[in-house]
Amino acid sequence: MPPTSRPLRKLGFLTIGLFDAADPGRGHESTLRIIELGEQLGFDSAWVRHRHLQYGISSPVAVLAAASQRTRRIQLGTAVTPLGWENPLRLAEDLATVDVLSGGRLNPGVSVGPPTHYDQVKDALYPDTADAEDFGYERVRRLLDLVRGKPVTDFSGTEGFEVFSDIVQPHSPGLGRRMWYGGGSLRSARWAGEHGMNFLTSSVVKVEDTEAPGGTDGPPDFAAIQASLIREFRAHHPDGEAARVSHGLVVIPTDSASPAQRAKYAEYAARRLPRTASPQGPARHLFAPDLVGTSAELAERLYAHAAFREADEVAFALPFTFEYEDYVQILTDMATKLGPALGWRPAG
Questions:
Q1: Structural domain count, the chain
Q2: pLDDT tens, 289-306?
Q3: Is 313 helix (H, G, I), strand (E, B) or coil?
Q4: Which residues form the domain of 258?
Q5: CA-to-CA distance for 242 and 221, rounded, in angstroms?
Q6: Residue range 173-192: average pLDDT?
Q7: Is residue 270 situated within a structural domain?
Q8: What is the pLDDT of residue 216?
Q9: Residue 265, class by beta-carbon neighbours within 10 Å (0-12 exposed, 13-18 middle, 19+ buried)?
């Protein structure tokens, strides 16, 4: 098996945290138990996905605040928080608070763009300013400035019996270095690098021209496109080749899976495979195939993946619709089989 050019240092996982509308507490508790299990297995990080008006985690900052009190070591991240739904000042306060509560373990990942189904939600979300809101990179820059301690106001000091600060409180000095941008385009990769962020990749990239890597004889090469994003990011980051990148795909090891689980996993991947054949929608999004197999098989496929070879940390995504017992099996195989096959050692 060929060695990766960047030995895997950090192993993480991502969950959407689904729940039943009739019993949402059970699903949220299941997510917290998964994060606790991740820490016990030695994972370096656990990430939660942000979902609004769906049956997934709508408030990952609140969930990670709870997780911070049930864990001691594992890094906790969002992948990603869509900033179109957020006020950067209020979000900066929440992020700093959870970072302090966690002992400096929070890794906020964000993205830009209008909220999903904006025409249907804008009157509830921004009743007075819907047509004036800016959903571009400026929103990220505001959040970065606030998290990094840029003054919010020109007033500070004592007024009566109350003391006021001119920067977001609490201020967590290390949080600004742990801000991540989740991007799938060259422009996003470049912007994140120029602004000193870390870079989250996922199973989605944007095909930006008809001559995308892969040639004209078949579909665009997802791995080559993703690798080009990583290189673009590092080319514009102050840290260059040392700039942090997290590689993310849906990866499902089957080493200890039951026959029924293996059949379920194979069916899940097959059902999602057609969307990987060509770019999807007006934005020309290209999806990566889900990887299912033994850890030895998965390691071989990952070592052959051009973008994986560019990163030394990963956050493998858990399938959205599986049961708790499936996640236990998948995470256990990741930590005990797949991670070691990639040269990783569990934390602690």
A1: 1
A2: 999 999 999 999 999 999
A3: strand
A4: 10-341
A5: 25
A6: 98
A7: yes
A8: 54
A9: buried
1 belongs to a structural domain: no
Q: Which residue has the tokens 């950067």?
A: 88
- What is the token pair recorded at 67? 């997780």
Mean predicted confidence (pLDDT) in 64-83: 98
Tokens at 167, concatenated: 């920067």
In three-state secondary structure terms, 166 is: coil
- Asked whether the predicted pLDDT for residue 270 surpasses 70, the reply is yes
Sign of CA dihedral 200, 62, 143, 132: positive
Domain assignment present for 97: yes
The residues near 129 (Cβ < 8 Å, ≥ 6 apart) are: none
Mean pLDDT of 71-89: 98
d(CA 265, CA 228): 30
pLDDT recorded at residue 70: 98
Q: How far is CA 158 from the centre of its chain?
A: 40
pLDDT above 50: residue 109:
yes
Count of CB atoms situated within 10 Å of the CB of 218: 9
How much is the pTM? 0.95
Instruction: Tell me the residue ranges of DSSP E strands in the chain.
Output: 10-15, 45-48, 75-82, 106-111, 157-159, 162-164, 180-182, 198-200, 204-206, 245-247, 251-253, 285-287, 291-293, 313-317
How buried is 343 (Cβ within 10 angstroms: 0-12 exposed, 13-18 middle, 19+ buried)? middle
Residue 1's pLDDT is: 43
Residue 112 is assigned to a structural domain of this protein: yes
d(CA 48, CA 61): 9
Q: What is the mean pLDDT of residues 180-194?
A: 98
State the average pLDDT over residues 278-292. 96
The domain that holds 207 is classified in CATH as: 3.20.20.30
Q: Please give the pLDDT value at position 2.
A: 45
Query: Pairing mode, if any, of strands 285-287 and 204-206?
Result: antiparallel
